[in-house]
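Notes from the 1:1 (GR / supervisor)

We went over the backlog. Supervisor wanted to see one worked example end to end before approving the batch request, so GR pasted a single chain during the call. The sequence is below; no edits were made to it. Supervisor asked that the structure be written out right there so they could see what the output format looks like.
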Amino acid sequence: MNRNDVTEKIIGTKVSKGIKWEDVANKVGLSKEWTTAACLGQMTLDAKQAKVIGKIFGLNAEEQKWLQVVPYKGSLPTPVPTDPLIYRWYEIVSVYGTTIKELIHEEFGDGIMSAIDFSMDIERQPDPKGDRVNVVLSGKFLPYKQY
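Structure output shown during the call:
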């Protein structure tokens, strides 16, 4: 057994029981974005959170322990994603990455936007021409230090 096996079990149970990520997040007490990432193997749960997830998805004690192991982050199977939705994010970074970088550096200076001290919010935004996906990414600015 490994973390991927646990992730597959979670996804299988989610599909078979019709579970919604937002409902899981409410039971864990964290955002749907972070909770989903954790269930998909990208974040580390503590024992209490793992127990809640275990109850929801029918995980045994060993499987719950896998949820508490620091994962190898980065779940894409190929360097350039082939899934159309994920590929559009790759396209956004390819087209707008230098613009985002330039504007962050102009506003904050030489540094990075943290993906560790980070939050994300995904919401449906109704629009008469077709609903829109509103994604807000918020990461702490970390300047490069001089030494």
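Supervisor's comment: The two ends are 45 Å apart (CA to CA).
Batch request approved.
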